[in-house]
Structures are given as structure tokens and as C-alpha cells.
Amino acid sequence: ETGVTQTPRHLVMGMTNKKSLKCEQHLGHNAMYWYKQSAKKPLELMFVYSLEERVENNSVPSRFSPECPNSSHLFLHLHTLQPEDSALYLCASSQDPAAADTQYFGPGTRLTVL
Amino acid sequence: GQQLNQSPQSMFIQEGEDVSMNCTSSSIFNTWLWYKQDPGEGPVLLIALYKAGELTSNGRLTAQFGITRKDSFLNISASIPSDVGIYFCASLGGAQKLVFGQGTRLTINP
């Protein structure tokens, strides 16, 4: 069992919709991450949070808005997305950002933007 | 930026065969990681390497950290159906951010 859960597992939305992805980690970690995985491209780091503070924003468009209300939960709020935003969105956690080499990944949310 | 070039992109093998894949970069890294991603799941860490020249095994998997610190390989011996999936190399880039290769998709014919 992964210890990192993500909901929903699949999401289809129109370009004018607003939706949110949720991630929860049960590992007692202090750092959480959002990644984007597109077909035939390497995983791309989007955001890093440490103790609920954003420590990295990897030039992500403002239509993606992260939120970390506590060290166990991470959200990714989506609005006015484009079809090219369709991808698998992965959440991960680690003990802290310095332990980025031991990240545990969730199963991902498969997002389709119509 | 830092990039990892992983090859081959895909492999089609018979059950029982050995598998070898590698990852190269023009940059020097101090850490090499190998992940496996099953369909519908997130990546899972298989092996972590922290020292140039290091050779580490995890069951039928063996990985090595190249002595130039610019490459790494992963071998799988006597492949079985559950080895199917996508294998990623990764390393720690600047500011402790993970940089990933493009992945090697492994398909096994029974």
C-alpha cells in the first residue's frame, strides 16, 4: 500500500470548468510535491511544499493553483485549462525537501481536458 | 537545463531473458535513482545509488553508478511477467529537485 493517496483517479473537464485534485499522505512526511507526466516526456516537477509553505514553483502557469492546508494534504486547483494540460498528475511526499531522493508517489490523477 | 537521456525507449523481450537499460547525462550527478511505474500507478523506487562506481542489487535487479558520475545502468535478470512496466532513471539536480529520464517501456512475451 502506497501511503500516498490521490483523488479522483480520473477526471474529465471542459476548458471552462474549475476542478481540484486532492492528495493525502499518511507517512508523517513534511514535504509534498506535484508532478505532471505527459506521454513520452519526463516527469516534470510543478510545485514543492515544505511544512505547508511553497518552496518551489517551477514556472507553472497560473491556471494551476496549489494549496497545502497542512502537512498531510495537498491540493491542485484547476481552472480554464487547455487540452495540452491533459496528463497524469502525480503527487509525492518525502520526509523533507532535502530527502527528495526518497519520495513516495501516489497513483496519480489521469486528467483529460476537452 | 539538466537532462537525462534514457535508452532504449522500449524493449520487447521473451520471458526469462535478461534486460539492460541505461541513462546518460552531460552533467555530473551525485545520486542516481531507478524507479518502476506499473500501469495506473505512480513510480516506485527500486534502487538508489550514492557513490561513483557503486553496484547495488535488489533481487534480480542490479544497478551501477558510473565512475564518471554521468551515467547509470539497470539490469534485470531472468525477466518475469510482473517486470512489465516503465522504468525511469532519475537524479537530484539543482536545489534538490528530481530530474527524470524519459523512461524505458518493458514488454514481456510469455
Task: Walk me through this protein's architecture.
The complex is a heterodimer of chains A (114) and B (110). By secondary structure, chain A is an all-beta fold. Chain A has strands at 4-7, 10-13, 18-25, 31-37, 44-50, 53-57, 64-70, 73-79, 87-94, 104-105, 109-113. Chain A starts with a strand and ends with a strand. The model of chain A has no long low-confidence stretch (mean pLDDT 92). The mean pLDDT of chain B is 93. Chain B is built from no helices and eleven strands. The interface between A and B is medium-sized, with 25 and 23 residues.
Features:
heterodimer, A: 114 residues, mainly beta, 7-stranded mixed β-sheet, 4-stranded antiparallel β-sheet, 56% strand, globular, B: 110 residues, 6-stranded mixed β-sheet, 5-stranded antiparallel β-sheet
- The percent range for helix content of chain A is under 10%
Number of helices of chain B: 0
Which structural category fits the helices and strands of chain B?
mainly beta
DSSP helical segment count of chain A: 0
How many beta-strand runs of chain A? 11
**Cα end-to-end separation of chain A:** 32 Å
Order of helices and strands of chain B: EEEEEEEEEEE
Secondary structure: number of strands of chain B: 11
Spatial extent as radius of gyration of chain B: 13 Å
Roughly what fraction of the amino acids of chain B lie in strands? over 45%
- Envelope shape of chain B: globular
The run of helices and strands of chain A is EEEEEEEEEEE
